[in-house]
Amino acid sequence: MSSVHNRALSPAQLQTFGDELDAVRARHQATLGASDARYIRKVVAAVRWCGVAGRALLFLGAFVHSVLVPAWIAGVLLLALSKILENMELAHNVIHGQYDWMGDPSLQGKNYEWDIAGTSENWRKTHNFRHHTYTNVRGLDDDIGYGLLRIFPEQRWQPFYLLQPFVAVIFALLFEWGIAIQDLRVGRLLGGKVTLRQLWKQAKPVRRKALKQVLKDYVLFPVLAGPFFLPVLLGNVAANVIRNVWTYVVIFCGHFTADAETFPKDCIRNESRGHWYLRQLRGSSNIAGGKLMNVMTGNLSHQIEHHFYPDIPANRYAAMAVEVRQICERYGQHYNTGSLPRQFGQVMWRIVRHAFPSKPAPARPLVTEGNERAESLGGQVAS
After folding, report:
1. N or C: which end of the chain has fewer CB within 10 A?
2. pLDDT of res. 370
3. Which residues belong to any copy of the Fatty acid desaturase domain (predicted)?
4. What does the DSSP assignment read for 286-355?
């Protein structure tokens, strides 16, 4: 069991806690400007030119066999880097509307379509709305295990979960496809809640987008290499797998470490702003690291700050984190952060541990007993 002990806050403390965090947002939002615009445009350029260089090296290796291996490796890494930056630092943040204020049509959250099998429209629904609104609320946040994994003991155990250490590996390799079908809720078909025809019709936008991605990466570019299509095809496969695994690791480290908590549905009834912040804090985890880690994770190394301020440009999170951490310390709230090996090690332990039957730990109240809602607002932490 986690040894973390958060101070239970009184209603008045919860109010001022929320006010102070709102003030952090207001200060940074008021100073958005040219430096933030330059930053995201540099990211756009990096995505473009890393992608061009990666694909060029894959072709070079295919046609000039004397440099096949080094060119192929360099091409795969650059193409994977382009895809990681596009998905995490560019698309994810743009789709949150972080750069809508710029007025640039190519950086508008409602219109941006990303380089991944799933549609941005589905992501706005499952992630921007459902996950960020109901973070770690059982029965409302589909990101808790993604319908495949039992990460928390509050999830009802079934014999299928005995396979989840293996399922988790496959899910990591194919992560973009799991994200693509998340909103389809395929489990409804098995439960008889929808027919195959209904599901097929609902999946039309996903099928169209997935086909486009498959044709681009696995048909068009390999065919352009002519008789040397195989190295290019394998290069595209490898780049996508690297992107998938890295994205999986970062997202899981941000939500499923040992100290992350889940919450019952009734915790959001009449939820105040301060309580919303507290729930986001206790359901999120940061990854310690420098600027390179921040960029490579799309600044989701600051998952706490991202859950607090999802529509503030993510390049601001490092500075905001200093203030957020100080506020958390003043109010006796655990600020969950650690190195990537430490955080992912905890995630892997959760996956293995909760493949077997386990009981939830006692609920911990978010507010003092003087508040009549104290018990219903408790989150739960387990080993």
Report:
1. N
2. 38
3. 71-337
4. EE---HHHHHHTTTGGGHHHHHH-TTS-GGGHHHHHHHHHHHHHHTT----EE-HHHHHHHHHHHHHHTT
Report the C-alpha gap between 324 and 21 in whole angstroms: 7
* Contacts of 3 by beta carbon, 8 Å cutoff, 6+ apart: none
Whether the Cβ atoms of residue 127 and residue 141 lie closer than 8 Å to each other: no
CA distance 100 to 110: 9
Contact, 199 vs 209, CB < 8 A?
no
Backbone angles phi, psi at 104, to 5 degrees: -85, 120
At 29-72, the pLDDT tens digits run 999 999 999 999 999 999 999 999 999 999 998 888 888 899 99
CA–CA distance, 66 with 240 (Å, rounded to integer): 25
Those residues whose C-beta lies under 8 Å from the C-beta of residue 48, and which sit 6 or more positions away, are 82
Furthest C-alpha separation in the chain: 75
**Bridge partners, residue 137, by sequence:** 263
* Residue from 21, 142, 43 nearest 92 by CA: 43
CB under 8 Å to 268, separation ≥6 — which residues?
134, 137, 140, 279
Mean pLDDT confidence for 211-230: 94
pLDDT (mean) for 288-302: 95
* pTM of the predicted protein model: 0.91
pLDDT band at 360 (very low <50, low <70, confident <90, very high): confident
* Nearest CA-CA partner of 179 in 266, 112, 121: 121
Structure tokens at 111: 């219109």
The span from the CA of 377 to the CA of 365, in Å, is 6
pLDDT value of position 288: 95
Q: How far is CA 286 from CA 66, 124, 204, 297, 336, in A?
A: 44, 22, 36, 11, 6
Domain boundaries, the chain: 39-115+206-247
User: Is residue 257 a contact partner of residue 281, using CB atoms and an 8 Å limit?
Assistant: no
Q: How far apart are CA 130 and CA 123, in angstroms?
A: 9
Per the listing, tokens 């994977």 go with 80
Query: In DSSP terms, which residues pair with 263 in a beta bridge?
Result: 137
| Amino acid in the structure at residue 313 | P
